[in-house]
Amino acid sequence: MFKGFVFDVEGTLVDSVAQNLRSFQDALERSGYRVSIQVLQAYSGLDGDQTLQLVVPEASQDERRAILKERGAIFERDYLPSVKPFDGVRDVFRVLGEHGGRVALATDCRGLAFKRYMTLLKADDFIAATACGDDVEHGKPDPRLVGMALRKLGLSGPTAVMVGDTPYDAEAGLEAGTKVATVLTGGFTEEVLRQAGSFAVARDLKALLKSLLFGEKGLELQQSDWLRSA
User: Fold this and answer.
1) Integer Rg of the chain from CA
2) Residue-range definition of the domain harbouring residue 68
């Protein structure tokens, strides 16, 4: 079993992907750019400035900063109140702790949104460390958030697993030396997540739990459960 479990938050622990995409689209439109939700979905979970460099390459650095600031304000005002936690997060954290695992969060979100998510999760007693967007300048796939979470846990990469919902979570985890497991709640396909390096992909955290507890053996247990129920 892994000693450490580093979790992404948005799209993994809380159901916020649609709200994030809409706030990004709204901010872009206010600056005169029309970008479809489908295009933005492909970059969901990627560092915001990197996303803008890809979807509006003509925008200057100052304009990108203004768009990101506007996006944050729109999200907090119009979309944050509708975000809900996914079912079973606290139970998953509890089981991991009962098996000797330590939980950390590594998320690009910051400020009011991060505080709101922590309140929604009601799992502070199971979370040993956090690294958020207030702590580092660059978001995923830059591995520094994951690395900071590992240092706070006092663990090395090979003893831990990064748990996320995007290929950018996977890239950050692999760069930090961890294994990677992902869920489908972020809107990416299983194929995309496996190509990004996930050793396990499941529909949600509860379905991923056996793989987190038992690694590759957990995949065999999941398959056997499926065969018994077929």
Assistant:
1) 17
2) 17-82
